[in-house]
Amino acid sequence: MISPVESTLDQCLKCNICTSACPVAAVTDLFPGPKYAGPQSSRFRRPGESTPDVSVDYCSGCRVCNMVCPTGVKIAEMNARARAVIVQQGKVPFRLRLRNNLIARSEMIGKIGQPIALLANYALTLKPARWLAEKMLGIARQAPLPKFSANRFTTWFSSHTPVSQSTRAVVYFHGCSTEYYEPHVGRAAVRVLEKNGFHVIVPRQNCCGLPLLSNGEFPAAQAYHQRNIDNLTEYAAAGIPIVGTSTSCTLTLKEEAPELLDMLDSNTLLVSQQTFDINEFLLSIQSNDELQPGEKPIPLELLYHMPCQYRAHRLGYPALEILRQIPGLNVMSSQSECCGIAGTYGYKIEKFGISMSVGRSLFEQIKAMKTPLVICDSETCRWHISAATGIPCAHPIELLAASYGFEPEGALEKLLTQRN
After folding, report:
1. Residue 17 neighbours by CB distance under 10 Å
2. CA atoms of 61 and 25, how far apart (whole Å)
3. Which residues 6+ apart lie within 8 Å of 237 measured at CB?
4. In angstroms, how far is CA 197 from the centroid of its own chain?
5. Considering 286, 318, 346, which residue would you say is the last residue of a domain?
6. Are 179 and 156 in contact (CB under 8 A)?
7. pTM exceeds 0.85, yes or no
8. d(CA 148, CA 298)
9. What is the CA angle 21-25-26, rounded to 5?
């Protein structure tokens, strides 16, 4: 059976629109462009044979090429598959593959670092430690490593008393970032969902596997994804929506993992069909006049950056639609396609400079606007933007929760406290 990815190969018109739009090819000659690394090279790839050009590893996987392709060629997925072949054939140097496997296992890192958050966070600020990590593993010393949270999201949720007693249920897929680094995003999501009359379920779950997919470690990613399918199928079969605040996690459940791994069984497809980004979900209930409007004004003018992975959902701008429900809030959309971090891409010493060059236009817009806060749906984008500009970031759901009257947390709390 032809994979859904390879089945799009002959739709390529060789129009070069993807190469013109590629943010990586625009700033470096190390990546020849989506068309050349994707459909053009894929015509010469055969199972078991060498990959023609290892430059495909410089594809960031941002999916801008997919979004601009007039015929729907799955270019980014072709590049991801080619990278997996490079890994399988042992063409990635041992030190870099060790680095890639380390930074791609965010759940493992969270389990190790979060219980000793104070010590771990201090260690990560030490210049000698970052220098050593760069020299030994190739992790860029300037890369924006997030701070571990003192408490896990699931620890809070296990003692949380639900506000809503509704029989309408929704599953919350929190992802690694919320569990180990930003539990306040999960708390905001739970409170917003309960405010709108939903009983929130947080089942057993693990990393979505996208970092492993992005680094060509397909067998490990498949094991991660299969465990999530096993844990989520019963809820999907009962018609309960699976909602996430990480756009990359929900995209992985929706299509990234099923397509890249050829996991097209009935359970995987069922979970895919029942998975929604949280703003997408809230917008769907708004269309039925069921979404509670914001109550407390937030009189700020802020910039919103839509992450590449969110554009790949092909949903338009649901976050902007939801933010318009907040009284007094004026939100401008960024004019940049990509911030440059691309998950683990920008953490690598050989790619950090590319990452910064890709994000330069966004950083300049943020600084020119003098916005006190940037709104962004992706955790790695938020960390990268804050590190590059010095401007704090927040998830859109945090602002809606604050407008509902819940106490803000994190960067939003500091900003609103200062304004008041």
Report:
1. 16
2. 12
3. 270
4. 27
5. 286
6. no
7. yes
8. 28
9. 70
Same domain, 117 and 161: no
Looking up residue 34, the CATH number of its domain turns out to be 1.10.1060.10
Rg (the chain; Cα; Å): 21
- Say if residue 13 is in the same domain as residue 107: no
Q: Give helix 396-403 / helix 183-195 axis angle, nearest 10°.
A: 50
Question: What is the residue whose two structure tokens read 């801008």?
Answer: 64
pLDDT band at 12 (very low <50, low <70, confident <90, very high): confident
For 259-276, write each residue's pLDDT tens digit. Answer: 999 999 999 999 999 999
Beta strands in 182-252 (DSSP E): 199-201, 242-244
145 within some domain = no
Q: Which domain holds residue 344?
A: 301-419
Strands, E assignment, 220-335: 242-244, 275-277, 301-305, 330-333
Give the pLDDT confidence score for residue 420 in this predicted structure. Answer: 66
- Say how many domains are in the chain: 4
At 1, the pLDDT band (50, 70, 90 cuts) reads very low
CATH number at residue 282: 1.20.1050
Nearest to 156 by CA among 207, 110, 202, 107: 202
What is the rounded distance in angstroms from the CA atom of residue 325 to the CA atom of residue 291? 9
Helix axes 106-113, 94-103, angle to 10 degrees: 70
Same domain, 311 and 237: no
Cα–Cα dist 83/77, whole Å: 10
Element (H, E) at 125: helix 117-125
How many other C-beta atoms lie within 10 A of the C-beta of residue 164? Answer: 16
- Say if residue 39 is in the same domain as residue 161: no
pLDDT band at residue 380 using 50, 70 and 90 as cut-offs: very high
Alpha helices per DSSP H over 352-420: 352-369, 379-389, 396-403, 410-419
Both 104 and 188 in one domain: the answer is: no
pLDDT digits 0-9 by tens, 219-271:
999 999 999 999 999 999 999 999 999 999 999 999 999 999 999 999 999 99
Centre a 10 Å sphere on the Cβ of residue 116 and count the other Cβ atoms it contains.
12
Q: Print burial letters for 352-381: b (CB count within 10 Å at least 16), e (below 16).
A: bebbbebbebbbebbeeeebbbbbbbbbbb
